[in-house]
Amino acid sequence: EPIQERFFRPHFLQAPGDLTVQEGKLCRMDCKVSGLPTPDLSWQLNGRPIRPDSSHKMLVRENGVHSLIIEPVTARDAGIYTCIASNRAGENTFSLELIVAAKEVHKAPVFIEKLQNTGVTEGFPVRLECRISGEPSPQIFWKKENESLTYNTDRVSMHQDNYGYICLLIQGATKEDAGWYTVSAKNEAGIVSCTARLDVYTQWQQPPQTTKPKKVRPSASRYAALCDQGLDIKAAFQPEANPVHLTMQSGLVESDDL
């Protein structure tokens, strides 16, 4: 008896979901379909057929996976994609949305404010500060002379904020802290460096203990927030303040006679 030919309507065994791809990158949509006879596949963008060209390719691998490859993705490729599988038994479809994200901006790091040569009296805190911009946000590296500063200690710490301010904070400067300091900023677009010198002066003679202690008026300046125990980092590291150099006279001194 003749063998009766059987037909099976297409059925998607694998289909992608919605995609977000950055402009200029590669987008790949993979699917796998069953059916008898083997279904034919076609693609549409917002209801319009997609024709193969230099940036749109349709491939079929030996394992039966069909792929729509778009490279490079442009803003015109955003929209609703529909894949249609059909044979003599019928057809089946699936749809997804492709969102094209704006192309990532790359800007090499640049110094808005450079490190400044600084002097401090021995035993007092000091901060070396600069301001840097760049896209994406650059990595920051510090060096003293030719030695890398790779981690924070209780006395020497490195900080940065969301406004581009970078600082190296030294609590209780010593003669050994004097020297040349270099800060470098690096991202995918480039690298930039800046160097400045720190001088540490001999401690001045202390006044007699009978001298009436000075009162320090609280200040909002992040560069003048000194206290008996050293520098209050949280109070000192506020981006809206204006830079000034730290000296023994940091803070506004007022007398009981005023």
From TrEMBL:
Cell compartment(s), UniProt: Cytoplasm, Myofibril, Sarcomere, Z line
Entry similarity comment: Belongs to the myotilin/palladin family.
InterPro entries: Ig-like_dom (IPR007110), Ig-like_dom_sf (IPR036179), Ig-like_fold (IPR013783), Ig_I-set (IPR013098), Ig_sub (IPR003599), Ig_sub2 (IPR003598)
Occurrences of domain Ig-like (ranges): 10-95, 109-199
Protein name listed in UniProt: PALLD protein
Source species: Pelecanoides urinatrix
GO cellular component, as recorded: axon; plasma membrane; Z disc
Cross-referenced Pfam families: I-set (PF07679)
GO biological process, one term: homophilic cell adhesion via plasma membrane adhesion molecules
Keyword set, alphabetical order: Actin-binding, Cytoplasm, Disulfide bond, Immunoglobulin domain, Phosphoprotein, Repeat
GO molecular function: actin binding; cell-cell adhesion mediator activity
